[in-house]
Amino acid sequence: MIHPLHTLFHPKSIAVIGASEVPGKAAERRTRSLIQGGYEGQIYLINPKRDRLFDRKAYPSVLDIGNAIDLAMIVIAPKFIPQAVADSVKMGAKGIVIITAGLGETGEDGKKIEAEVLKIADEGGAKIIGPNCSGLFSGSARMNLLGIPPIKKGPLAIIAQSGNIIDSLTHYAEMRGMGLSAIISVGNAIGVKFHEYIEYLSQDDDTKVIMMYMEGINEGSQLVQVARRVSTKKPIIILKVGRSKAGMRAAASHTGSLAADDAIVNAAFKQAGIIRVSNVDEMFDVATCFANLPLPKGKNVAILSEGGGDNSVAADNAEVQGLEVPVLPS
């Protein structure tokens, strides 16, 4: 059975609403990365002020395309977003990626726009990614809506509430020669939720390890339920911020997320088989290990080192993390 999110990662056509050629603009970077990334489907560039963009025909409205679309990416001012979503739904869009920031994370006016957008999308059967997000990447579809240089296809997937965390992880991947199967910038996550992405990636043959950066958890029980099932087959590694008061304030101002009690988060993650890490470096190291090594069958580990001190440090850390270092037979 095809997963409901499949079309978002394998669209046959994409409309870029707010497409631009102005260097450095969010719309220009993402339009360019989509075109240069090798995406083979139909690309429709929408800009009422231009007849052509990137040597391609441009349309004043998505309604003027004349063909149905699978996915729309919206990079326009907040007040115009509801109409753009409504037009995209009319043209058959199953997925809508909203890059624009300045919505729910800024206050009540932005939350009202988000509620209107979500209502329109739900009634039209479309999935919303974002708003306030960096975009989407699918290795198998060669679709790069992130506005960053070409990305090598590989076994690691990223789900993140932060564009700069995605930038860091893609940089590490390039430096270490690792590839990525999917990158999802969830932003304010008013539509598709974390557990839905995990569920989709669990069925994705290209994904071996799932990395996540979270600022808030709004669907705790569903996340735990899905992660418990998926983590036995594919490791889930999460960097969850909001451990401190300062971190909670930062998360709230960034994506409008409310951070949960950290002790509860730890207990829930442990119950679900989720591996929690403290920083981006640790997350990528752990993900790389899981991608290149088979999943262990138990808790027993052997430590090999050239010095006694290193052995002692490793042994302490192993037991702290719940592993066992048995005495080997002589």
Notes on the structure:
This protein is α/β, with parallel strands linked by helices. The chain folds into two domains: 6-129, Rossmann fold (3-Layer(aba) Sandwich), CATH 3.40.50.720; 151-292, Succinyl-CoA synthetase domains (Rossmann fold), CATH 3.40.50. Helices cover 38% and strands 18% of the residues. The chain has eleven helices and 14 strands. The strands form two sheets. Strands 3-4-2-1-5-6-7 form a seven-stranded mixed beta sheet, sandwiched between helices. Strands 9-8-11-10-12-13-14 form a seven-stranded mixed beta sheet, sandwiched between helices. Strand 6 (95-98), helix 4 and strand 7 form a beta-alpha-beta unit. Helix 7 (220-230) packs parallel to helix 9. The longest helix is centred in the middle third of the chain and has 17 residues, at 108-124. It is elongated, with a radius of gyration of 21 Å. The N and C termini lie far apart (53 Å).
